[in-house]
Design a protein that fits this description.
This protein is about 25% helix and about 30% strand. The protein is α+β, with helices and mostly antiparallel strands and about 550 residues long. The strands form 5 sheets. Strands 20-19-23-16-17-22-21 form a 7-stranded antiparallel beta sheet. It binds flavin-adenine dinucleotide and NADP nicotinamide-adenine-dinucleotide phosphate. Flavin-adenine dinucleotide binds next to β20, β22 and α12.
């Protein structure tokens, strides 16, 4: 089998299906896997045709390079010569050609904003656009220098960068005692909870990202003095006040909290947060572009820092246990100086440097078992992440992950996801369609609904696997069905080894029409689907054909 990662460019239709782990994959030629691409980028070959020079590219110049054998593409203001990458792109060359000689940013963001193209294409970098297509976004950063004077107190409202949400603009303040520094964020949002605040203290800087619906309020400060590693976060849910308590290392009075860092005190759409990070990366490049004798090693170092817009911290692997013959539970411990709780149905990104190139893949944290009680989130939930990961022998990322030893560290991003608990709040019937590791988002969801949603009458899981041996947590699922009468599980096997374990089959309309019947007429229903992209797409289509509305179907995707 070929070894192909998610495409650096979104594919569409059949090609997208093919590249995403489905049955029909884009047949790349032998020697054209991601690993082969990485090798080529390390070979020292001049992939841009510019002998390492970086240039300013006008729109007219970009448009000239629009052929398969001479193809330049602009992403976030940076221009890449993707001609040598054509044969290695899992979505196929046609997909890349959709952005040939033009700005491919939107096309790229549609599907795989998180794919680290900067790292994958760093040796294809031609330079930057002479005209900045993202000027409006970049300008939001320009408010920052003024703030430098003001960090000893609460900032005035007009410092906030997004004007459309003025009334709900958060603000912050800080105070101190001999031993402690307390930073207070007034989010002005009722119903705040600890999943909505992500705090990191790394290398002397404090970063607090408060997620307020689709907006992010970021506090990002290089602290004046050293503080101890452990931090405490208190949230006053009703008034939306967040307190971060830091312990001073030296008990001296602080005259100011610190110096503002990139995007400090910004209140913007979560999706734009990534663009801000990327545009700052672009500005960094832009300043180097003017130096035509730009040093290639320096360029490599810059890219290694990673600018895909995700924020990472290093987590320690503390245990690795077998779930099935090819799937393992990885238990990661968050740093003491991080507060991160991943909401139900959301995923994080893991990042590894493989052969000198940053590779990023999404994974969905699970609970430690199907018996966890969600009423009281355990201490473990806020200090650890548990990931159930299938190891593919020829998989680029997981085969490397499998080599991690207890005590090793791996970079873990903030969480993302579109699932909202409000989707299940007053639910009566919940149907779950999972294939293979598509089971992972269902774990926390099952635990959550069975302990928190009083209106729930039925929860049914249809779990698709190849063989009996592939069924994840089969025993736990059967135990749960015995313990809770509302829950039912059906196993569907596409390649059963022996008779009698479950139904043989594949996802189909007839299978679903029986399974997703409402427990009573007009009951409030949600159907969640997760698995290989073609599986999910087929499931959604069958459900639509069966008359379920968009709001009644949720698919887990990146
Ligand atoms: P890849 O290199 O991508 O290959 C995977 C397999 O497909 C290999 O066997 C490879 O040989 C084969 N293959 C790939 N392309 C081709 C091709 N063109 N032709 C033939 N064969 C091909 N996974 C989990 O295990 N647990 C999770 O919790 C989880 N959560 C996820 C959450 C989201 C939102 C998404 C989108 C995915 C999630 N995944 C999860 C999948 C995960 O992100 C990776 O895709 C997976 O781990 C495989 O990565 P890899 O680099 O090891 O394999
Ligand atoms: P797998 O073992 O290859 O397959 C599991 C089941 O799904 C099998 O019964 C299989 O039937 C069926 N299936 C596979 N491809 C299909 C297709 N194209 N159409 C219909 N049925 C299909 O699965 P896996 O290796 O664990 O892969 C799990 C997938 O889930 C990965 O692609 C992963 O990226 C995805 N995932 C997504 C999320 C998310 O988006 N949140 C989370 C976790 C996992 P056949 O034998 O007929 O192939």
């Amino acid at each position: 089998m070929l070894n192909v990662p998610a495409p650096a460019f979104p594919a569409s239709g059949s090609q997208q299906r093919a590249a995403a782990g489905g049955r029909s994959k884009v047949p790349l030629k032998p020697g054209r896997s991601l690993m082969d691409w990485i090798r080529l980028t390390k070979s020292g070959k001049d992939l841009t045709g510019l002998k390492g020079r970086l240039i300013e590219v006008t729109e007219e110049e970009l448009a000239k390079h629009s052929k398969k054998d001479d193809c330049w593409i602009c992403i976030r203001g940076l221009v890449y010569n993707v001609t040598p990458y054509m044969e290695y792109h899992p979505g196929g060359d046609d997909e890349l050609m959709r952005a040939a000689g033009a700005d491919g940013t939107d096309l790229f963001d549609q599907v795989h904003r998180w794919v680290n193209y900067e790292s994958m294409l760093k040796e294809c970098l031609v330079g930057r656009m002479a005209l900045k297509p993202l000027a409006a976004t970049t300008e939001t950063c320009c408010a920052l220098p003024e703030e430098k004077k003001l960090l000893n107190g609460m900032l005035p409202k007009n410092k906030v960068l997004d004007t459309s949400s003025k009334d709900l603009t958060p603000s912050y303040d800080w105070f101190q005692t001999d031993y402690l520094v307390t930073v207070v964020i007034y989010t002005k949002q009722k119903g705040m909870n600890s999943e909505m605040v992500i705090v990191d203290h790394q290398d002397g800087s404090l970063r607090v990202d408060s997620i307020l619906r689709d907006y992010s309020y970021l506090l990002h400060i290089e602290l004046s003095y050293a503080v101890q590693e452990d931090i405490t976060v208190h949230i006053a849910e009703k008034v939306g006040k967040v307190e971060i308590v830091l312990k001073k290392k030296d008990n001296i009075p602080w005259s100011k909290l610190g110096q503002p860092l990139n995007s400090h005190n910004s209140f913007i759409k979560c999706t734009d947060r990534a663009l801000l990070v990327c545009s700052s990366a672009r500005d960094h490049i832009a300043s180097n572009v003017s130096i035509l004798s730009y040093n290639l090693n320096e360029r490599s170092c810059f890219w290694m820092q990673g600018y895909s817009g995700l924020y990472y911290r290093k987590c320690k692997l503390i245990s690795k246990t077998e779930v099935t013959h090819d799937t393992k539970l990885f238990c990661l411990m968050l740093p003491q100086s991080t507060h991160l709780q991943v909401p139900v149905g959301h995923h994080v990104y893991l990042k590894q440097i493989i052969a000198g190139t940053e590779i990023v893949k999404p994974y969905t944290p699970v609970s430690c078992s199907l018996k966890s009680d969600f009423k009281e989130p355990s201490h473990h939930d806020s200090t650890h992440l548990i990931l159930m990961i299938k190891i593919y022998p020829s998989g680029l990322f997981t085969s490397e992950l499998d080599h991690l030893q207890i005590g090793d560290y791996i970079s873990v991003s903030n969480s993302e996801g579109s699932f909202k608990k409000s989707q299940v709040q007053t639910l009566e019937d919940l149907f779950l369609l999972a294939a293979g590791t598509g089971f992972t988002p269902m774990v926390k969801l099952l635990n959550y609904v069975l302990t928190n949603v009083c209106s729930l009458r039925t929860v049914k899981l249809m779990f698709f696997n190849k063989t009996e041996d592939d069924i994840l947590w089969r025993n736990q699922l059967e135990q749960l069905a015995l313990k809770d009468k509302r829950f039912e599980v059906q196993f569907i096997l596409s390649e059963p080894k022996k008779e009698g374990t479950g139904k043989q089959g594949k996802i189909s309309s007839s299978l679903l029409s029986e399974f997703v019947k409402r427990s009573k007429k007009d009951s409030k229903v949600l159907i969640c689907v997760c698995g290989p992209v073609p599986f999910t797409e087929q499931g959604i289509q069958f459900l639509q054909d069966l008359g379920y509305s968009k709001e009644e179907v949720h698919s887990f995707t990146a």
